[in-house]
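Researcher: Last one for today. Full complex below.
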Amino acid sequence: MTSRPEEPLDLSSPGAPVQGMSLRQEAPPPSAEYEFTVRARRQWQLVLRRFLQHRLAVASLAVFIAVVLFAFIGGALWHYNYQQFTGDYSAPPSLKHPFGTDAASHDTFAQVLRGTQRSLEIAIFVAIVSTAFGTLYGSVAGFFRGPLDSVMMRVVDLFLTFPLLAVAAILGDQLGPKANGWFWIALVITALTWPYVSRVVRGVTLSLREKEFIEAARALGASNARIIGRHVIPNVMGPVIVTVTILVAAAILTETALSFVGFGVQAPDTSLGLLISQNQTAVETRPWLFYFPGVFIILIALTINFIGDGLRDAFDPTQRRVRA
Amino acid sequence: MLAYTIRRLLVAIPLLIVSTFVVFLLVTFSGDPLANLRTKQPPPSPQVIANYRHMLRLDQPVLVRYWHWVTGLLHGDFGPSVQGGGTLDIGHALFQRILVSLRLVIAAIIIAMILAVIVGTISAVRQYSIADYVFTFTGFLFLSLPVFWFALLLKEGAIWLNNHIGTGFKTLGESSPIVGPGFGSHLVDALEHLVLPTITLALTAYAAWSRFNRSSMLEVLGSDYVRLARAKGLSRSRVLIRHALRTALIPFVTVTALDIAALLSQTIITETVFQWRGMGDFLFTAIRALDVYAVLAWLLFAAIIVIVANLIADLLYAVLDPRIRYD
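Model: Here's the assembly. Have a good evening.
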């Protein structure tokens, strides 16, 4: 049997920053029995129902939304600004300063709120732009195949030869200190993550384009743009959403790591990674400065990972083994 | 197989050329390598700056510089460096750092793989048991843990233990400045320094791999041939190890091979926390010093690692899975 070398690996999302998530690329057709006994539901309704059954994922979604609201609404309401000197130096957590204060009398609660905002803004930017671009890129490459596909995928290979953190550090060193540094950091991370999305999308598109409904659409005279827009892209959204949740968690960890080593978000702005970097010597003497930002990073990354897990189960229930 | 390997390596050469060119442009246009020199107090004479400009070939067009760099590489010359007053031998320095980082990476990979196979297999065999839930949760936790935060936590914990119980954890550097005579004491010293960074790196790496092993195990355990093996009377453990695990390990091994490249990012962060003089320190120092050729050498090495790891992953797939044939 002859096989293209990349084929077997594509199924398992090789090279994604956070692997171990086996991404099944298409939902299996519902069995006949299922179709006859249950009222017909649209695929999205089925996915939603299965997602809601995943208790941990639903709880994570609730926590994640709470963190988002906390960061953006809480940040606007909280009576201290993250740059404000409160006059309380190195105070432990209290009612006045729920997360304590640092040696320069900044309110840590306000700083964590601000840092969480920054980290979330970067993550959301990465999610939206890399999904949009990666999906479009991957579906065009997979749909047209041939030399166009080869060239486009070599470009993806090119991007994937650069270690994310190293390139982000090189660019972040120059772009981080600019005004709107966070935007440039987000852009750099996006530039390095979209290839993962496009690789997954291309893999699914390659099998989709041979399906009967695509052939039917073409027989009806649909243009290529319409087939890609109306038939291919909606059908790749499942694997894409799963990949993107994993990438977003990875993006948050990358951004915080980058800020930690000093090539990400720079003072006077702040981010969760930068806060930990500034307070790394205070673990023993003023532990609140170190633990709270860390806990928020974990909270965000963990809930996103669980949501991704729930979505994967929802899109692909084959992993639930009944038989022992 | 040999022909395939050679062909893949030949394909890798243009990829490497294009990727180094892109990186060269990226690094060249990302900043002025003499910026640090220009802002120095007291300001260096124009003659000094002109000398540096000439040494770094900044007086030549970019394409010519790239050509000089590539032809230099073929002679083992990685280009001039601004560090150490222009005397740093980039190739030699980077090689030393790679050796330091390599022992951390190898130790972590071995421990992480063993851990991932054990945890993943137990999780799959006892799906939806308490053990599975605990392993799944800890797996996700380590997956979501910022590596620098975890490393700092371990480091501070070890320092606390050292101070209160008198344990002898080594928390700084990759070796002690003064070591007793003989190879044996050097080895012990290096191993002692390896403990904490290895734990950090292994635990952050194992998480994703154990999840992967779990899902590939689940897929295999649900297949008909495993049921057949049980039906013909083989013992549970024999079916599990000889039939199921062997098959499940095929995709697992290739994924870990691919992941070694991604592990590089975690390694340089871990090294930073434990203040190792490894590849991470080399890269970050080079970036801060705007040392273009040192950064380029680092990226070249990283790109080669990625390409070789991809090739190894594909070849391993063919070696382990008889259904895959390359020709």
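Chain A is about 65% helix and 0% strand. Confidence is low (pLDDT under 50) at residues 1-25 of chain A.
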